[in-house]
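Anyone else keep sequences and structure tokens together like this?

Example one:
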Amino acid sequence: MQGFWLRLPMHWLRDVRASSWTPCSHKRDWKPSEGQNGYIMITANGGVNQQRVAICNAVVVARLLNATLVLPRFMFSSVWRDTSQFGDIYQEGFFISYLKSDIRVVRELPMELQSLDLEAIGSMVTDTDIMKEAKPSFYLNYILPILYLNRVVHFVGFGNRLASDPIPHQLQSKWKGQKLREAKKSRYLALHLRFEIDMVAHSLCEFGGGEEENRELEAYREIHFPALVELKKMKRFLSPTELRSEGLCPLMPEETVLILADLGFNRWTHIYLAGAYIYGGSSRLEALTTLFPNLVTKEKLLSSAEIEPFLNFSSQILDETIYLRDG
């Protein structure tokens, strides 16, 4: 591990701090938001982790805009093929009561707003309408006026659409510094490669599969990312080689192996591989499974009978982020 840090460029070692982050969620020294400016709806996309991030961001935006949050919904993903909704995974009552010191949460829109055609009146806001990592000022300048006008805004997708910094002090999440120690002897590791076909296709990178891979990923983009396909026709993107040189491509499993080894995880480390089907299947995982033989997936941990009720409900099973704590 020490050698790993010594090989990093100096700009990686500088102490660059966020502008104003301090632990604060245990000090709730503000009054609960009454949510008087309208209602925020969210239909989050992605896997369980992306959905969780979208929900957290929606809570922050509701507080920022003094709006009432309607219980989130989840968009069906052709990758996860999971029809689970918020109440299938989380406890709705606990969610509402826990956040009552921060924002107002309701189970559904008031009756008089349920018949509105949100897209027709301009209250449907998709990811194409919001830049990635948008700052709070964007929501105050562009979303709040819609809320005033129509009393409701519906965010669809909402993936990474709120910047982590700067965030007003009152809206910061609780942060506990966790020290990453050198991995000694055998350790347990939960690993999410993020190498599913949607991530691979959207990256516009190449992964060594030649023309067959290019045709397959382009066909996938035409079905699942038509806006990206059209944008490629009008705008020059970085080439796959340039994307990789800039560090903008998802790590291939064989690259992940090198990082794990350099971090000090030995071959006897027990690894749980989270996530959906890895692009390229078992052959793509060969380097990982060869060097880390104690790697398992949910399919290996459960019998066919145990996993059968969850075949189309992966969000309800094991793919939660697992945090390793000292001691």
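And example two:
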Amino acid sequence: MGTGEVSHSSSGNQSVSNNNETNVILNVYDLTPINNYSYWVGLGIFHSGIEVHGKEYGFGAHDFPVSGVFEVEPRSCPGFIYRCSISLGRINMPFSEFRAFIESVASEYHGDTYHLISKNCNHFTDDLAHRLTGKHIPGWVNRLARLGSLCSCLLPESLQVTTVKQLPEYHEMEDGSESLSTTPRDSTEIDDTEQEKHLLSPKDGNLDVAFVKEAQK
């Protein structure tokens, strides 16, 4: 993609470790306990996030044409069951530069463009990983989406359209930048069917998810 491209350090570089260096880690979560059985035959429904500079970044759905990229504490994405972490390498990039980079990427991933088959959280992490390290995420993480793109009937209808019924709003971060937080709508605005389609449904009022503000074009 045209924006948000970065250079990355090759594994052969012998650079001196400094505060600008950071690991790039893929954190994988189960969306359903069924994965405990289907995982061993190469199938499963997974969520993933990319951990950089001590924060984890993912992509989720909401109803608005603004950033759907969010940050959480690593390996702690609410609503999902943490499975494993996969190291994708190291990069030499100051946090301020990475912040500008992720805000640029966020402009390409609006919450209302989320689609389970063609533009889901794993497409986001694969794109982010490739831009940062030149590597792709393991194929098994998003295999079900690829199969579904060939035959969508493989996926239940409730999984083909996924949305989070929350209103994003900005708040100021400690470094002076802005992020989006999520404010659940009144339950009267959501019927029982929509409740089943939540991607990041809060189980209580303390959903620790902050949406990244996209870069202004």
